[in-house]
Amino acid sequence: MSTPFYVSPQQAMADRAEYARKGIARGRSLVVLQYADGIVFVGENPSRALHKFSEIYDRIGFAAAGKYNEYENLRIGGVRYADLRGYTYDRDDVTARGLANVYAQTLGTIFSSAGEKPYEVELVVAEVGAEPSGDQIYRLPHDGSIVDEHGSVAVGGNAEQISSFLDQRHRDGMSLAEALKLAVQALSRDTNGTEREIPAERLEVAVLDRTRPQQRKFKRIVGRQLVRLLEADNAALAKTDEPSDEASEE
Q: Where does the sequence pass through the membrane (predicted)?
């Protein structure tokens, strides 16, 4: 009689984590940044039908990297949770923290279950507050842990390099055009340090705008509005590089 093959629990969990990380790394990265009037989501996505960013509730947005069918199931579950809680109690009782806890339980249960493979997804749940100090951003890796982020966060294949780039350059109070330009610069950097151009039609951009008069703060930025924002920041950058009148007189 042959001896059953044994794998220690630690090795099994390490193998599952490595499997999930490799799956997430195959997807394109995305970034979430705070700016003066809210939170902006930016990612490279050539598809106009399959979205990485979505609205969950009035002031809450959802971003995900990894396998589309898996994070789409999680998104739909989050919408149902938010709708039920808002209807049963009050709309103000639907928070990013509560939603992050629900996602953490789901991802953690799947990750620790030996009966199914772990989800190859990494999530970001963000909520815009009435003031910048009230903004909340939570990152949820494949194992269901919750990381409370501030300022900027990147998930996906090249997340470490992008996060390092953003940490050095992101600042509080940036305009939407400045934050968008920074996000595109971070996403355009390859692993070898070179930069490539990402055209506007390959970008997916959305915002949680606290200044919107509507109760729902989520809005997609597409088409001419996106091009204007990118061009406006380029024009402002070029203007700062020009010599001043005083310098030219000298």
A: none
